[in-house]
Amino acid sequence: MDLLLALIAGLITGFVFTLIKLPIPAPPVWSGVVGIIGVLSGSQLFNYLFR
């Protein structure tokens, strides 16, 4: 459910920012998105291994 709400919030945010011609508050390329996922995954892996 949290993922669905986050997706909906992101879609609305992206739509509104584009509508009013502001730069989107996210990396403009997929490599940036993958980098963010990598940072989150690394943090989760650390917590799994050492806590």
UniProtKB/TrEMBL annotation:
Pfam families: DUF1427 (PF07235)
Keywords noted in UniProt: Membrane, Transmembrane, Transmembrane helix
Domain of life assignment: Bacteria
TM segment ranges: 28-50
InterPro entries assigned to the protein according to its UniProt record, in alphabetical order: DUF1427, XapX_domain
Protein name: XapX domain protein
Source species: Citrobacter amalonaticus
